[in-house]
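Justification of resources, computational component.

The compute hours requested in this renewal are based largely on the per-chain cost of generating structure records like the one below. Each record pairs the submitted sequence with a full structure-token output. That output is archived, and it is also reused by downstream analysis tasks.
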Amino acid sequence: ANRTTDGWKRPLQYRVSEDGTITLSSLGADGKPGGDGENVDIERRYHGKHTDGSLWVGAPMWIVEAEVKQ
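The structure output for this chain reads:
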């Protein structure tokens, strides 16, 4: 929660799609695309908007709500 680095202390990568989906990613232990085990890429998506277009981000528990409602 509220970390800006991955488990290997490298910055998390992020992108926001047109539909408001926020994708956080890490390249794993080796810092290279692909891989297996600890080196596997990790990616997590969160919806940044409700279906009516309003933002989740304003809600105190927006990450938890966005994860549950994916």
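Residues 59 and 65 are 9 Å apart (CA to CA). The chain has a mean pLDDT of 79.
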